[in-house]
UniProtKB/TrEMBL annotation:
<keyword id="KW-0408">Iron</keyword>
<dbReference type="InterPro" id="IPR027417">
    <property type="entry name" value="P-loop_NTPase"/>
</dbReference>
<comment type="similarity">
    <text>Belongs to the Mrp/NBP35 ATP-binding proteins family.</text>
</comment>
<dbReference type="GO" id="GO:0005829">
    <property type="term" value="C:cytosol"/>
</dbReference>
<comment type="subunit">
    <text>Homodimer.</text>
</comment>
<dbReference type="InterPro" id="IPR019591">
    <property type="entry name" value="Mrp/NBP35_ATP-bd"/>
</dbReference>
<protein>
    <recommendedName>
        <fullName>Iron-sulfur cluster carrier protein</fullName>
    </recommendedName>
</protein>
<feature type="binding site">
    <location>
        <begin position="14"/>
        <end position="21"/>
    </location>
    <ligand>
        <name>ATP</name>
    </ligand>
</feature>
<dbReference type="GO" id="GO:0140663">
    <property type="term" value="F:ATP-dependent FeS chaperone activity"/>
</dbReference>
<dbReference type="GO" id="GO:0005524">
    <property type="term" value="F:ATP binding"/>
</dbReference>
<keyword id="KW-0411">Iron-sulfur</keyword>
<keyword id="KW-0067">ATP-binding</keyword>
<dbReference type="InterPro" id="IPR044304">
    <property type="entry name" value="NUBPL-like"/>
</dbReference>
<keyword id="KW-0547">Nucleotide-binding</keyword>
<dbReference type="GO" id="GO:0046872">
    <property type="term" value="F:metal ion binding"/>
</dbReference>
<keyword id="KW-0378">Hydrolase</keyword>
<dbReference type="GO" id="GO:0051539">
    <property type="term" value="F:4 iron, 4 sulfur cluster binding"/>
</dbReference>
Length: 267
């Protein structure tokens, strides 16, 4: 158990650029809109992007909380902590597995999380040793896999699901991102990256598609400007999809608690 955190949900993807961080921040905001106390831990050392997505000014540093802990930053009602708050991300740095695990552990345990119902972790992309170590070291209640409907991304998503299974972390579902391109001129939709991929994977691994998100100009502009869609368009369709996914996640992790832990972690 991490002090101040009830449930931990890892958001992962087999490869980068599929929208893992975009989904993480919007899911977290949607969960907060559903009435939960929510935090984000940006563990993507290769490209920490939560600071920008949450509109936190560059160079903002967390304040100390007592002797050896830090207060999370607050943004749009979320508590947030990121590798980017602690190290200069412009400095090129070669991360080796043990360094990452150490830095990550520190971020997780030395942050003074304030009574969170759910902490979302924006995981580093990929399914290598680093990701496996993180999945093992942290008491994760469940994982959400983000993929595009493209074959190559789905192949990586499979590896992601298998990795979490290996360490007995339940996969809560698959988010199919960039499912349909919606033209900002006329609103017509086109399945640029193909169709039905998330569904096939969900069936194969006996998990579910939590939701499908379109590829739109608005989603990108909003998240890149620090006001993600769930904040910018609280009554829009995309927000409704994120809130539905948030409710499914909440149900699943809370269900786990009443049934007692199905998984045990050792240090
Ligand atoms: N559904 C979407 N529609 C439009 N742009 C998107 C969508 N999802 C992600 N993006 C954009 O794609 C880029 C990569 O997304 P990001 O969330 O940073 O991916 P990852 O964390 O997987 O590397 C970002 O510029 C983001 O704004
Ligand atoms: Mg990212
Ligand atoms: Zn058009």
């Amino acid at each position: 158990m991490i002090e101040g955190v009830k449930h931990i949900v890892a958001v992962a993807s087999g490869k980068g650029g599929v929208g893992k961080s975009t989904v993480t921040v919007n899911l977290a905001l949607a969960m907060a809109a559903e009435g939960y106390r929510v935090g984000i831990l940006d563990a993507d050392i290769y490209g920490p992007s939560q600071a920008q997505m949450l509109g936190v000014a560059e160079g903002t540093r967390p304040q100390a909380a007592g002797e050896n802990r830090f207060k999370p930053l607050e943004a749009h009602g979320l508590q947030a902590m990121s590798m980017a708050f602690m190290v200069d991300t412009r400095e090129p740095m070669v991360w080796r597995g043990p360094m990452v695990a150490g830095a990550f552990q520190q971020l997780l345990t030395q942050t003074a999380w304030d009574d969170l119902d759910v902490l979302f972790i924006d995981m580093p992309p990929g399914t290598g040793d680093i990701q496996l170590t993180l999945a093992q070291k942290v008491p994760v209640n469940g994982a959400v896999i983000v993929t595009t409907p493209q074959d190559i991304a789905l192949l990586d998503a499979r590896k992601g699901i298998e990795m979490f299974r290996k360490v007995n972390v339940p996969v809560l579902g698959v988010v199919e991102n960039m499912s349909l391109h919606i033209c900002s001129n006329c609103g017509h939709g086109e399945p640029i990256f193909g169709e039905g991929g998330g569904e096939r994977i969900a069936e194969e691994y006996e998990t579910r598609v939590l939701g499908r998100l379109p590829l739109t100009m608005a989603i990108r502009e909003q998240v890149d400007s620090g006001r993600p869609t769930v904040v910018a368009e609280p009554d829009g369709d995309v927000t409704a999809t994120f809130r539905s996914m948030a409710r499914q996640i909440a149900e699943q992790v809370q269900g786990q608690q009443t049934e007692g832990p199905s998984i045990s972690f050792s240090d």
